[in-house]
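Comment thread on ticket #2218

A.B. wrote:
> Attaching the input chain for the structure job we discussed in standup.
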Amino acid sequence: MEYFIGLILSLAVGVSATVIGLDRERAFYPTVLIVIASYYVLFAVMAASRRTLIVEIVVASGFLLFAVLGFKRNLRLVAAALVGHGVFDFVHRMFIQNPGVPPWWPGFCSAFDALLGGLLAVRLIRHPERVSFDGR
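C.D. wrote:
> Ran it. Output below, let me know if you need it in another format.
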């Protein structure tokens, strides 16, 4: 059920952003990526050790870097990072023990991230002028 809810919510966010016009701004998807990446840090603050918090901050910082580079240079990086975060959600528990993560979160977030990254990729293919500042 968490996968289904993640897909529906992601579709709602992506379609709403397009209909309302929020995604006309280059900052929209990078900002969403930063927020998405910060949730594991929040979960670590809620229930984990200092070591887990540091690991989660390091990982989130990597996604923050992709968001900044994607915003500044090429939004394809943001699309790739969103899909990459979906994969990360799927394998997170194999590498990082974070007891604050709800059991349903990885499935929900994985579905949300992968679909939103895919929607952004399709949008960039259909509107290549939005990929980078100089149109590449």
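A.B. wrote:
> Thanks. Noting for the ticket: The mean pLDDT is 93.
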